[in-house]
């Protein structure tokens, strides 16, 4: 596996994208709205910043109300998501997603529960 992106929850993806784009010399690589959120990916050397803004009720809005803005998750890329989930299960890791589901850019994704990963919400992304 390799680093893919860090997800950042924000109430203003466009404003934060403008700030980070200039600060980090990180152009916008992709934008879309799905599953009640707007996502903006900023391209970095070796990965992305994913900015997550709620577009309606859902997990990101709930997260912002509970935790406030900031790092939401860390994503790792894999070539074989089902095998990565099997490996996690074999090691007793609690899964948020028992099976892969659609994610941004049309990638299959699955999340590991933070109670099993030192408090970090980990996303596996099949690329």
TrEMBL record:
Keywords: Metal-binding. Pfam families: Glyoxalase_4. PROSITE patterns: VOC. Residues 2-127 form the VOC domain. GO terms for molecular function: metal ion binding; methylmalonyl-CoA epimerase activity. GO terms for biological process: L-methylmalonyl-CoA metabolic process. Belongs to the methylmalonyl-CoA epimerase family. This is Methylmalonyl-CoA epimerase.
């Amino acid at each position: 596996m390799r680093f893919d992106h860090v997800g950042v929850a924000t109430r203003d993806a466009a404003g934060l994208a403008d700030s980070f784009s200039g600060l980090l010399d990180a152009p916008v690589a992709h934008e879309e709205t799905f599953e009640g959120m707007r996502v903006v990916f900023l391209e970095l050397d070796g990965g992305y910043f994913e900015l997550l803004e709620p577009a309606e009720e859902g997990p990101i809005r709930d997260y912002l109300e509970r935790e406030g803005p900031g790092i939401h998750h860390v994503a790792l890329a894999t070539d074989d998501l089902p095998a990565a989930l099997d490996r996690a299960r074999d090691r007793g890791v609690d899964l948020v997603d028992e099976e892969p589901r659609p994610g941004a850019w049309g990638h299959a994704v699955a999340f590991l529960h933070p109670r099993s990963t030192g408090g970090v919400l980990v996303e596996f992304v099949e690329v």
